[in-house]
Specification:
CATH class of the largest domain: Mainly Alpha
Radius of gyration: 28 Å
CATH superfamily of the largest domain: Transferase(Phosphotransferase) domain 1
Shape: globular
Strand content: 15-25%
CATH architecture of the largest domain: Orthogonal Bundle
Largest sheet: 5 strands, antiparallel
CATH topology of the largest domain: Transferase(Phosphotransferase), domain 1
Number of strands: 34
Number of domains: 4
Oligomer: single chain
Distance between the termini: 60 Å
């Protein structure tokens, strides 16, 4: 069975080229088509399509050219090469035959996978299977639709707290690439020797599983069915990514307390004997927890006027469940107005009605159904209890809104908006600079750390899209990080192949040089943290540039503001890599001791050499030293002003 990190599936080569029905018109009018054109690079794939991640487009030199893409996977890593190609010539030794498709659909043909298209940049998105091609046409061309193997939870047999009633999650932490495309995700649950155990695997539905054939294996949900001839054994199957992680039991299903002939008394005596020890352990853990909470509160930045009452209310609601809302009834939420829209989702200001009929202002991030992967990625990050931190956006819950075919993430609402909007409308004083910059660094340091402030182990996380638009300003003028749709958990299950397969992601303006060049050291997880630190340095520069303490405050502009609003990767390469440019640090910053020290820190963070950059925790310590230094005083500025 193939797993992430040890797929070893060898090399499979596919070639994708397609020609739409308009190809004859293009050829007759001598029009030149525009196609994606990039050397081989990692691609982002989900169950039915791959995106080439190619940012370069060219107008094909010949009017008869069509868009082409070459796809292969080696050791689990998906790679795509895009180009223009003359269909009258062989491509990788094979002549193109299918010129009628309207999209770039990968198909198997002997050792190659061949097809073609002439739509504008139609080789950017590669479909892995399709239901629009007639079977007799497939037979004539001697090829068939290609489909990637499914991704399923795969932990064999293990103990579980899942009690066999209602809906529950598996405890499996391993995701596997199924060995064959025909295999689907399967889970089984049964009781053995009085304990509940479960199994999560990939399985071919053409074969019997535990003596019976699977039913409803094309479903998107894993609905448990009782195995014939048993009282407490259930099996479910489904055909969607990791769908066997969430088990749905039939109404009335109940666990069997013990198997036939199994003595219940010894287990009861053992339980009674353990009660005093359990109580003592709970008290000890509680004392340690309250000590850590108090210690963390003492380490916070100096208190400011006002309070973030909305966030506190969300925390109170969230303490019971930091996961998906499994209630039969969705939360009573009334959407108000849109406050932002990104590549994958739109954010709304909303009202959450409590039992007392009072309303709580919250933020709702709404993903369409075809952005499940982005929603799931962000939900997985937020649902980690150890992520909770004062400088990370407070998460409430996630919901699958089937009626409207939407996925929701519900979080605290920050009235001041994101940092980019705030800086464009306000000048800030020295104290406010320290609160904004210091809290930003503390949030990034918490993400990158493998320990909580209390010393408990946690999984390090990299944001991979740090920018001022993804940082919110709280009521006390501290920052909190948001938008984790491109984030990665750097746990033991993350392999170099997975990291490479994630592609060149982020916002070009804030990308580190090694990200722009796609030359990150995938064997070293620290390289992903170093790229985050580079992005954080640009945000810190934005903050300092709007501080009146320096005496020279200009109109707000983003880093590399002279470039167009949304520069592409190639434009950023010219400035950042070829010319080694960075945002200007005005001479006036050296007139203020604190700003001068901060500018040195920023320059160390955006160093061209990733190994030479400071860590986020080091930046936190620099801020602490600067704030506590007696030689640093403000220049008489009294706080933030309107632009």
């Amino acid at each position: 069975m193939e797993r992430f990190g040890s797929v070893g599936c060898g090399s499979v080569l596919l070639v994708c080229v397609m020609m739409s029905g308009a190809s004859a018109l293009l050829l007759s009018t001598n029009q030149h088509i525009q196609c994606k054109s990039c050397d081989p690079q990692p691609a982002f794939c989900r169950s039915n399509q791959c995106v080439s991640n190619c940012s370069a487009s060219i107008v094909c030199p010949n009017p008869q050219d069509v868009c082409a893409a070459v796809w292969w996977r080696d050791a689990g890593m998906v790679t795509v090469e895009t180009m223009c190609h003359d269909p009258t010539k062989a491509l990788r030794g094979e002549m193109l035959q299918d010129y009628s498709g309207s999209e770039c659909v990968l198909r198997i043909r002997d050792s190659l996978r061949v097809c073609a298209c002439t739509g504008h940049e139609c080789n950017e998105r590669l479909l892995l299977n399709t239901h629009t091609v007639e079977e007799n046409k497939i037979d004539t061309l001697q090829h068939k639709p290609f489909k990637l193997p499914q991704l399923c939870k795969f932990c064999d047999i293990e103990s579980t707290m899942c009690n066999g009633t209602g809906v529950c999650e598996s405890s499996c932490k391993v995701t596997s690439i199924c060995e064959n495309p025909e295999q689907v995700c399967v889970s089984s649950w049964r009781r053995s020797n009085g304990s509940a155990i479960m199994e999560t695997v990939c399985h071919d539905p053409a074969l019997a599983f535990r003596g019976q054939f699977l039913q409803d294996f094309n479903s998107t949900r894993c609905e448990m069915r009782r195995v014939k001839g048993t009282e407490d054994e259930y099996v479910c199957s489904c055909n969607e990514e990791e769908c066997n992680n969430r088990l749905i039991f039939p109404d009335g299903a109940a666990p069997v307390p013990a198997g036939p002939g199994e003595p219940a008394l010894p287990a009861l005596l053992l339980l009674v004997s353990l009660v005093p020890s359990v109580i003592a352990l709970v008290l000890l853990v509680s004392l340690l927890y309250f000590y850590c909470v108090c210690r963390q509160a003492n380490l916070k930045a100096p208190a400011t006027k006002g309070s973030d009452s909305e966030t506190r209310a969300i925390i109170m609601i969230d303490d019971d469940d930091n996961s998906l809302n499994h209630n039969l009834e969705l939360l009573p939420i009334q959407l108000d107005s849109s406050v932002g829209k990104g590549r994958f989702a739109e954010v709304f200001r909303a009202k959450l009605k409590h039992a007392s009929q009072s309303f709580q202002t919250v933020a709702v991030k709404i993903f369409p159904y075809d952005e499940y992967v982005s929603w799931k990625t962000e939900w997985d990050i937020y649902s980690d209890a150890e992520l909770r931190h004062e400088n990370v956006l407070q998460f409430l819950t996630a919901e699958d809104r089937k009626a409207s075919r939407e996925y929701w993430l519900i979080t605290a609402y920050q009235e001041r908006g994101n940092l980019q909007e705030f800086l464009s409308q306000h000048m800030i004083g020295w104290d406010e600079l320290c609160r904004l910059g210091g809290s930003l660094a503390r949030g990034v340091a918490h993400l990158h750390s493998d320990r909580t402030p209390c010393g408990r182990a946690k999984v390090a996380i990299v944001h991979r899209d740090l920018k001022s638009a993804n940082v919110l300003v709280k009521a006390d003028l501290t920052c909190c990080l948001c938008d984790f749709g491109l984030s990665l958990r750097l746990d033991n299950y993350t392999s170099p192949e997975e990291l490479a397969n994630s592609g060149q992601v982020g916002t070009a303006r804030y990308m580190a040089p090694e990200v722009l060049e796609s030359r990150m050291d995938l064997e070293n997880i620290e390289s992903f943290k170093q790229a985050d630190v580079y992005s954080m340095a640009l945000v810190l520069w934005e903050i300092v540039s709007r501080c009146s303490a320096t005496g020279d405050v200009r109109e707000y502009e983003p880093p590399f503001g002279k470039l167009k609003e949304h520069p592409c990767v190639e434009s950023m390469k010219d400035d950042v890599i070829r010319d080694r440019l960075r945002p200007e640090i005005p001479v006036s910053w050296s007139n203020h001791t604190g700003a001068h020290l901060l500018s040195s820190t920023i320059e160390e963070c955006w160093d061209h050499d990733p190994e030479a950059r400071l860590t986020a925790q080091c930046v936190v310590e620099r801020f602490s030293d600067i704030i506590s230094s007696d030689i640093i005083t403000s220049t008489g500025d009294s706080g933030s002003d309107d632009k």
